[in-house]
Amino acid sequence: MSDALRLGTNWVDYLVIAIYFVFVLGIGIMARRAVSSSLDFFLSGRSLPAWVTGLAFISANLGAVEIIGNSANGANYGLPSVHFFWIGAVPAMLFLGVVMMPFYYGSKVRSVPEFMLRRFGPTAHLVNAISFAVAQLLIAGINLYLLANIVEIILGWKLWVSLIVAAAIVLTYTTLGGLSAAIYNEVLQFFVIVASLTPLTIIGLNKVGGWGGLKDKVTASAGGSAQLSSWPGNGLTGFDSSLLSVIGIVFGLGFVLSFGYWTTNFVEVQRAMASKSISAAQRAPIIGAFPKMFIPFIVILPGMIAAVLVNEISDPKNSGGSPNYNNAILYLIRDLLPNGLLGLAVTGLLAAFMAGMAANISAFNTVFSYDLWQTYVVKDREDGYYLTVGRWATVGATVVAIGTATFAASYSNVMNYLQTLFGFFNAPLFATFILGMFWKRMTASAGWIGLVSGTVAAIVVSVLGTDVLGGLSLGVIGLTGQGASFVAAGAAFVVDLIVSVAVTLVTAPKPESSLRGLVYSLTPKSDFHDDSEGKLSWWQQPTKLAGVGLVMVIILNIIFW
Question: Is the pTM of this model over 0.85?
Answer without folding.
Answer: no
